[in-house]
Amino acid sequence: MLVRTLDEVTDTDADIKTPNWRSKRVILAKEGIGFSVHETTLYAGTVNDFWYANHIEAVFVTSGEGEVENKATGEVFPLKPGTIYVLNDHDKHQVRPKTEIKCVCVFNPPVTGREVHDENGVYPLITE
């Protein structure tokens, strides 16, 4: 059994901070369980372009409000607590938080914690 708290990853190398968002990577590939889990905070008023070409991501909103746009179709979906969206087709998307949004993100394959978004918002596929 693996038990971990957010406090255990806060301000460690598993706590990634950018001007637009913060990602606390609670479970990573090194745990060997087939997915990674992150608590992500997206800051109000930011515009965030992402494209996980190498990963499937599920995002469950726990607090805050905003919207996510499917960049291929132009569809815009409201985000609020209790909303989940899944990027099952490696969808290019844009997240626009109206208020600070906190969400739980699950990645498959799991991230290692060393990934950095490239100019297209893509995480490289790193296998340990």
TrEMBL record:
The keyword Lyase appears for this protein: yes
Top EC class for this record: lyase
Catalytic activity: (2S)-4-acetamido-2-aminobutanoate = L-ectoine + H2O
Gene Ontology annotations of biological process type: ectoine biosynthetic process
Keywords: Lyase
EC number: 4.2.1.108
GO MF assignments: ectoine synthase activity
Listed CDD domains: cupin_EctC
Listed pathway(s): Amine and polyamine biosynthesis; ectoine biosynthesis; L-ectoine from L-aspartate 4-semialdehyde: step 3/3
Matches recorded under InterPro entries: Ectoine_synth (IPR010462), RmlC-like_jellyroll (IPR014710), RmlC_Cupin_sf (IPR011051)
UniProt xrefs under SUPFAM superfamilies: RmlC-like cupins (SSF51182)
Chain's role: Catalyzes the circularization of gamma-N-acetyl-alpha,gamma-diaminobutyric acid (ADABA) to ectoine (1,4,5,6-tetrahydro-2-methyl-4-pyrimidine carboxylic acid), which is an excellent osmoprotectant.
Family stated for the protein in its record: Belongs to the ectoine synthase family.
Official protein name in the record: L-ectoine synthase
Gene, per the UniProt record: ectC
